[in-house]
Amino acid sequence: MRCLYSKLIDDPVRLDWFCSTVVTEDWHYQHDAGRDLGEMLVERKRAYPDCADLIEAYATRFLETIPGPVQGTHEVVRRLSAKGVPLYAITNFASLFWRQFRPTDPIFDLFRDVVVSGDEKLAKPDPEIYRLAAQRFGHPPHKMLFVDDNLANITAARVLGWQVHHFVEAAALEQDLLNRGIL
């Protein structure tokens, strides 16, 4: 969120307050999990009427909240694809925002399937999204490697039998993939 709101709020103290109180990760997560955006906006504007324009920017300028790919990750994905490794994704993304974002990043053309939380009304780390993904992807969890930067998501996948990699940087992921004989 800070990528967008740092453009709209000059005062660092107010920016911190806004991102920790008004348009928060927990609030955003509700939309990722399938909650109606219009309902969320009305509710939030009612609670913070002095911030109505900033709250509206969440809906109209969402793509500006995304900082871009993490350095090195696209290269790893391309190498995996070139090697014939089947690629799948589970993403916490609101349906509307995914439809806006997806065309901006052709790397997802390399994926056979993407489970989108907003479409499914399930979001990581809910165990049901991993079960759904395993079913859709057609592979048992122990045969797949789940990569995520969120430890709660990693823990949930591990409990369900997925192989996991807690993502911190592309170089560490690449080394793990080499160690597993995947790259």
Into which percent range does the helicity of residues fall? 40-55%
Mind telling me the CATH superfamily name of the largest domain? HAD superfamily/HAD-like
Strand order, sheet with most strands: 1-2
Strand content: 5-15%
Keywords: Hydrolase
InterPro entries: HAD-like_sf, HAD-SF_hydro_IA, HAD_sf
Protein name: HAD-IA family hydrolase
Organism: Novosphingobium rhizovicinum
Textual characterization of the structure:
The chain has 183 residues and is mainly alpha-helical. It folds into two domains: 2-65; 73-179, Rossmann fold. It has eleven helices and four strands. The chain has helices spanning 2-8, 12-21, 25-32, 37-47, 52-60, 73-82, 95-101, 117-120, 127-137, 151-159, 170-179, and strands spanning 88-91, 113-116, 145-148, 163-166. The chain has a two-stranded parallel ribbon. Helix 10 links the parallel strand 3 (145-148) and strand 4. Helix 4 (37-47) runs antiparallel to helix 5. It is globular. Keywords: Hydrolase. GO terms for molecular function: hydrolase activity. InterPro entries: HAD-like_sf, HAD-SF_hydro_IA, HAD_sf. It comes from Novosphingobium rhizovicinum.
